[in-house]
Amino acid sequence: MPLGIRETGRLATFSILANPLRSFLTSLGIIIGVLAVVGMSSLIEGLDRYVSAVFSQVGSDNFYIQTNPVVDTWILDRFLRRDWEDLTLEDKRAVEKHAPSVLFVSAYTVHLGAEVRYRGEKTNPNVLINGADQYWHRLQGFDLDSGRFLSLIDETNRRNVVILGADIVEKLFENVDPLGREIRIDGHRYRVVGTLERQGGFLGFSQDNMVLIPISSFRKYWGRRSRIALSAMARPGQVQLAIDETIAVLRKRRGVPPGRPNNFEVITSDLIQQVVVLIMLGVSLTMVSIASISLLVGGIGIMNIMLVSVTERTREIGIRKAVGARRRDIITQFLVEAVVLSGIGGAIGALLGVGLGLFVGFVTPLPAAVPLWALLAALLVCSGIGIGFGVYPAMKAARLDPVEALRYE
How many other C-beta atoms lie within 10 A of the C-beta of residue 285? Predict the structure, then answer.
């Protein structure tokens, strides 16, 4: 680095450190903007990795059939007047029988808001009840901690047996083996036959605050409260064929005429990931907009403080010109000062953004992930802001008449 540039940078740093509070307040907009960009990029990267890991556990050969859309809003539902007939267990059996590319298919339904009791202990009334069959765990990627999964006999005989999530075990059975114990779910008696391994949270919701019972038993007590959905696993390498066969079977059963759209929706893991990506993209664009406004305010602040600095240092500028400083030397001095001021704000914002990403990774299941491109982009943008908003003050300083500048008090 040439000595002149090095000396200019040293002078710029001393000038900034001479007024630390003013420099910090000037850089605050830059700090907030970079923090928003780096922090949100870290969260999105971690969420993307987490979602990919979850779906890799479930399997890419799985697909789901339901009668409510993936993106469902009240306005959309009213506009389309979507009134699809619910799926049934007969639909499941038809797919099993007439879709040879489907390895197995499971019917399941859910009810949120149950209370589970064991003797004097009880949970909050926010437990998720899963009504399912013997294939549920293979399609959802859950593993047992103890006991057994549901069986075909449990479903056929409508047995009141239950498998508990880890949160329920922890709440009701501290230091007690839950297997074989009798609990009450919304007042109905169930015998515990298994417990699930802890799954952790997903998108802010605990996957362990749930119980699993046979779907036939579910329908005895909560059958009218929730819709049935189907999940299926295709034979290896035959996912699209399995989907096509399933669609054909269900269209025939549900009386959909040729040329009319399906009155059900088929969802693949890829589709769900695409929806998550779109949601993350929307969040990203929102945060980028907020960060852009913050960076713009920060740039205006830098321009303002540099104009103040030019006024305060008018006599200094006159002396430098009097001893031979050229216009480009003055421009370089103030541009370097603006870039250093912006860069310090960017560095602080980047460090805070990295810290936010690491903190979220520590307190949530999301992996800590700080993309390198976000750091580089933030620092480059800060340099651009310093140059862009520092040009006018630098030009103003360079155009000062040395005689008039020396007379300035």
Answer: 10
111 plus 239 within the same structural domain: yes
Residue 134 half-sphere exposure, CB side, CA atoms within 13 Å?
10
Strand (E) or helix (H) holding 341? helix 327-363
CA distances from 144 to 137, 207, 237 (A): 9, 14, 28
Residue range 225-246: average pLDDT? 88
Contact 30, 385 (CB under 8 A): yes
Which residues are CB-neighbours of 367 under 8 A, at least 6 positions away?
46, 49, 50, 361
| pLDDT interval class at 365 (50, 70, 90) | low
Cα(347)–Cα(352) distance, integer angstroms: 9
One domain for residues 216 and 118:
yes
Tell me which residue range forms the domain holding 394: 3-54+275-407
Structural domain includes residue 222: yes
What value does the mean pLDDT take over residues 236-265? Answer: 90
Q: Are residues 108 and 145 in the same domain?
A: yes
Q: What whole-number distance in Å separates Cα of residue 266 and Cα of residue 244?
A: 10
248 and 281 housed in the same domain = no
Proportion of the chain above pLDDT 90, given as a percent = 27
Task: Give domain status of residue 322, yes or no.
Answer: yes
Q: What pLDDT digit, counting tens, does each position of 164-203 carry?
A: 999 999 999 988 999 999 999 999 999 999 999 988 766 5
Task: Work out the pLDDT band at 405, boundaries 50, 70, 90.
Answer: low
pTM of the model: 0.62
Length of the chain: 409
**Whole-angstrom distance, CA of residue 213 vs CA of residue 199:** 18
Beta bridge partners of 16: none
Tokens 């299941």 sit on residue: 365
In a shared domain, residues 186 and 335: no
99 and 44 housed in the same domain:
no
Mean pLDDT score across all residues of the chain: 80
Rounded CA-CA distance 194/144 in Å is 7
